[in-house]
Amino acid sequence: MRLLLLEDSYQDYLRALEGLDTSFDITGADDPEQLVTVAAQCPVWLGQPDLIARLLGQGLKPLWVQSTWAGIRPLLATELPQDYLLTRAVGVFGQLMSEYMLGYLLAHERQLFERAQKQADRQWDTRTPGSLLGRRVLIVGAGDIGQDVAHFLAPFGVELHGVARSPRALPDFLEVHGLADLNRQASMADYLINLLPDTSHTRDLYTLDLFRQMKPSALFINAGRGTAVVDTDLVAALEQKCIAGAVLDVFREEPLPAEHPFWSVPGLIMTSHTAAVSSPVHIARLFIENLSRYRKGQTLKGQVDFKQGY
Q: Where is the signal peptide (predicted)?
């Protein structure tokens, strides 16, 4: 079988794949233009959605695409074909995302950033820090990654609630509510973690009205998609102290423009879409497992429903 590999980190993925399986012929690069002439001879593609979309846009189409990202938004463009098998990266980001969330939850409770500033100002800070024990954590997006985060946080004694498209019972969560109940659940949360994908149902969810219903002591963390947040509303919420702070890893436009108000609004911490970066070794293992399923005609992990967008 001939595999098309299209990745910015092409050499890293090539080494990872060759270390696991040598039963297929890999053709690849980090530039789609270099692969136009050979892509039609490759029934299976592995790579990042933005680069793969450029080949699809030229009329080329595989039988199966394995994305190296959890998000597959570039492949959902209406002008691109959707009559092929698409799988997204699943089961490989849970540990990294959980560590990211835990780091900022603990930093908020232990007042680490404020204490660092006090030290810089030579001020002795005797405030009593908080604890995660008993804190109500709302995970909005109780899918693959959300469930991993919940499992990771559970031993810290937090009260875990979730939000998904519809109510359901899931391990580690006391309750998982429907998306229609988001505002009410947000009003009771000490921490609101957004992990939703980008779909027509998940855009512009976080408005000033929602932030005004939250506790003034609450922390908002978004590592799902930037389109879920109305940027101007979050800025207003922080300026009005509707919430204690926000941590953002994802944005509507990346890199974030230098003139964007997020750079200077008080109470906002930004990371540059690095909360859970794809690992070539982990993605290669997922691909090899899915390849075995593909050859046997079985359902693949992370199989995308184009109508739902994930």
A: none
What pLDDT, in 10s, does the model give residues 24-76? 899 999 999 999 999 999 999 999 999 999 999 999 999 999 999 999 999 99
Taken as a whole, the chain contains a residue count of: 310
98 and 208 belong to one structural domain:
yes
Has 73 been annotated as catalytic?
no
Report H helices in 93-141.
94-109, 112-120
Whether residues 179 and 255 share a domain: the answer is yes
In a domain, 41, yes or no: yes
The Cα-based distances of 59 to 8, 37, 220 in angstroms read 22, 12, 42
Residue of 73, 203, 252, 273 marked active site: 273
**Residue range 75-121, pLDDT digits in tens:** 999 999 999 999 999 999 999 999 999 999 999 999 999 999 999 99
The verdict on residue 308 lying in a domain is no
Catalytic residue among 108, 135, 161, 225: 225
Radius of gyration of the chain (CA): 21
Determine the structural domain holding residue 145 and report its residue range: 94-270
